[in-house]
Amino acid sequence: MTAIELHKKGFASKTITYTNPVGGITNIGDPFILKAQNKYYLYATSDPSEGFRVWESSNLVDWSLQENLAYDNLDQSKIWAKGDFWAPEVVKHNNQYYMVYSARNEGGHLQISIATSKNPLGPFKDLSTEIIKGEGSYIDGDIFINSDGTPYLYYVKDCSENIIDGNHVSQIYAQKMNDNLTKVLGEPKLLLQPDQDWEGLNGDYQWNEGPYMLKHDNKYYLMYSANYFASSDYAIGYAVSDSPMGPFKKAEENPILKKDLKHGISGPGHNSVTVGPDGKTLYIVYHTHTDPNNPSGDRQLNIDRLYFDYGKLKVDGPTYSPQKIVIK
Predict the structure, then answer these.
(1) Is the peptide bond before 318 cis (omega within 30 degrees of 0)?
(2) Burial class (CB in 10 A: 0-12, 13-18, 19+), 62
(3) CATH 3.90.550.10: does it fit domain 17-327?
(4) For position 209, what pLDDT does the model report?
């Protein structure tokens, strides 16, 4: 029912107003918002030496930081990670919550692991480490549960150790997972790597990272970020496929979210997507640099409306003026 129809029937829709950045949250990166139990939970790169903080909200705008870490490295039965806790994402599956994240192991490599909890606030406990086995470093896990119940893991082979033709290149891969989300199945499949002009193809370091899968009208939209995270040029693009394992074709209109330095917006990137309080409006969740004049790992939370238009994924943003959110 539309807002006009609700108004005619005597039900006035309620709206709240926000202006990016939201929540007054800084010193984070790679924000992921989970909607569960009629609330929102924000996880992010937020305590790289110890684990992950968690914030709670009822409306996507007003956030409260919880006292305890959602994932505490020092509270694990076996401490394997030595730091660099990055890019947590949480999904509900089999009546519990699974957190996928990356961290640096004793050998100095970045690896992807899975932790679980009965509560979205945590505490999350490690379930299966070294999800991706093999040489190199792996980051930015994204778990996607398809409509047929099949889980997939999208992840990045990190440019720190992935050298192709003399260049350090970050590439996005995918594999199916078992139903317990404890391991990947089959061989890894390369889905995306830097190949569009806006992705910094002339640099010695090149990135396609931060994958996030979204399904709409039986099409699979793989969102990703490109360029250096501490650069104002960090931005978001997407690719489309008829299958969760590809092949994917990048959108010609990429990037769909990019800098606007005139209005203080630098490096919008590493996104997730959530559903608004009205139960239907999609919002892209992303970070920007807290100080646009000095891009760094100090980033802040932003949200904007995301929608589909004749098969194309579009974002009303990045915004800097007041925006309205409809509350159901």
Answers:
(1) yes
(2) middle
(3) no
(4) 98
Q: Which helix (H) or strand (E) holds 7?
A: helix 3-8
Record the tokens describing residue 80, joined without a space.
């394997």
Distance CA 35, CA 233 (A): 30
pLDDT digits (tens, 9 = 90+) for 61-90: 999 999 999 999 999 999 999 999 999 999
Sheet with 39-45, strands from edge to edge, namely 29-36, 39-45, 54-57, 64-65
Instruction: For residue range 280-308, list pLDDT tens digits in order.
Output: 999 999 999 999 999 999 999 999 999 99
Q: Residue 258 corresponds to which tokens in the numbers above?
A: 């990019």
Cα gap 211→222, rounded to integer Å: 6
- The Cβ of residue 300 has, within 10 Å, a number of other Cβ atoms equal to 21
Amino acid letter, 310: Y
Q: Report the DSSP beta bridge partners of residue 245.
A: none
Q: Which of 315, 148, 309, 171 is nearest to 243 (CA)?
A: 148
Which residues lie below 8 Å from residue 53, measured CB to CB, with a gap of 6+? Answer: 28, 43, 44, 46, 47, 65, 66, 69, 70
Coil, strand, or helix at residue 27? coil
**Closest among 75, 23, 17, 19 to 44, alpha carbons compared:** 23
Name the nearest CA neighbour of 23 among 261, 225, 300: 300
What would the DSSP string read from start to end of 119-181?
A: STT---EEEE--SS-SSS-EEEEEEEE-TTS-EEEEEEE-TTT-EETTEEE-EEEEEEE-TTS
d(CA 315, CA 7): 27
The CB-based long-range contact list for 290-294 (8 Å cut-off, 24+ gap) reads 290/21, 290/26, 290/27, 292/232, 292/261, 292/264, 292/265, 292/266
**pTM for the predicted model, two decimal places:** 0.95
**Distance from chain centroid for Cα 263:** 24
- How many whole angstroms separate alpha carbon 307 and alpha carbon 285? 13
Q: List the chain domain ranges.
A: 17-327
